[in-house]
Amino acid sequence: MKFSFNGSFILLGTSENTIVLIDAFEGKQLHKFTSSFNETGIPLEAGFTPDSKYVITGSDNKRIIFWNIETGKEI
Predict the structure, then answer these.
(1) What is the pLDDT of residues 2-14, one digit of tens each?
(2) What is the CATH number of the domain that holds 43?
(3) Is residue 10 part of a domain?
(4) What does the alpha-carbon distance between residue 22 and residue 38 come to, in Å, rounded to a whole number?
(5) What is the pTM of this model?
(6) Which of 9, 10, 57, 74 is the most buried (most CB within 10 A)?
(7) What is the pLDDT of the chain when averaged over all its residues?
(8) For the chain, what is the domain count?
(9) Which among 51, 52, 61, 56 is positioned nearest to 33, based on CA atoms?
């Protein structure tokens, strides 16, 4: 579990091979990110950019993906 730098969002890794972005104040799910996992389906790392506008995920396939928090889409 990680909190965004601005305190507005929470990232949670799940057993469903996804990373979920949650609104920290309302507790509702905003987006699911389903890329950048290792062979076992587990995300190796996820975090926020310092401006809290993007989620960053990484895996052992040497891919780093930036996700737009507003749209949930890969950049």
Answers:
(1) 999 999 999 998 7
(2) 2.40.10
(3) yes
(4) 23
(5) 0.82
(6) 57
(7) 86
(8) 1
(9) 56
